[in-house]
Amino acid sequence: MPESNTNDPRNRIDAIRHRVQTRLGALSGRSRLVLMATTALVGIGLASVAVTAAVNGHDPKPATVAQATDQKARTEAAQRADRAQRAAPKPAATAKAAPKATKAAVKAAPKPAVTRKAPAPKPKPKPAWVSPMPGAETTSCYGMRWGVLHAGVDLAKPAGTPIRAVHAGTVFSAGWAYSGYGDSVVIDHGNGYLTHYAHMSRHAVHIGQHVVAGQVLGYEGATGDAQGPHLHFEVHHGMWNQVNPAPYMRAHGVNLGC
What are phi and psi of 223, to 5 degrees? Predict the structure, then answer.
């Protein structure tokens, strides 16, 4: 016979009934009635328990175990949450704003150096008097030569060197105007003096033109009575009244080498 389940209420009822019937056989009249009534009440109570268990679909004892398990799981979950909360890192403290600079500190702070642009150098004023051929070699000075007056100063550089006005003035003549001088230019300086530039290869100004000191009048050549390229330079105190150019130009700060 298979082993009965003692936890089943119905089996417990059958066992109690069997014990009661066994004892009833040994009792007499009244005692039997009392025991039968007690047995009936116990049976009704056990039956009610069995019916309730059948309706709910489970034994009361397993429900109690499930509740205890659920309560334990909740307790453990609460403990884990508490540990996690305590282990969570505290939020980092926000950096404090830098203190504002005090008025004294602002006053004490050195001011940035202000760089100023150096003023552009002023152009040097052009000299009022210049050499007719700067850097040229002096080949002949004013004076007697071969029994004839050499009425000027000869200056030599390579052919084509620019010839410049020694001072501001107006062009009095330009071209082949005078015998023996070749292509030449005469400048009237307005102070009673004129300067004459002879033997040019070509001239670069025209009559009546105003010129300034250092302006190109023409280019060195060997036109007229010339043995080679050079400039024959004369100073006239009134036209055809030649004077020594060397002291006159020296008086105006220009050395002709004589």
Answer: -75, 155
User: Do you know the residue count of the chain?
Assistant: 258
> Mapping DSSP to helix (H, G, I), strand (E, B) and coil, where does residue 211 land?
strand
Mean pLDDT (10-residue bins), the chain, 258 residues? 52 63 55 56 51 46 55 72 62 57 62 75 87 97 94 97 98 97 98 98 98 98 96 97 98 96
Distance from the first to the final alpha carbon of the chain: 164
- Quick one: 218 exposed, middle or buried, by C-beta within 10 A (0-12, 13-18, 19+)? buried
Q: Do the Cβ atoms of 231 and 223 come closer than 8 Å?
A: no
What one-character DSSP code corresponds to residue 5? -
Closest CA to 258 of 160, 145, 162, 146: 145
Give how far Cα 6 sits from Cα of 3, 10, 60, 224, Å. 9, 9, 14, 161
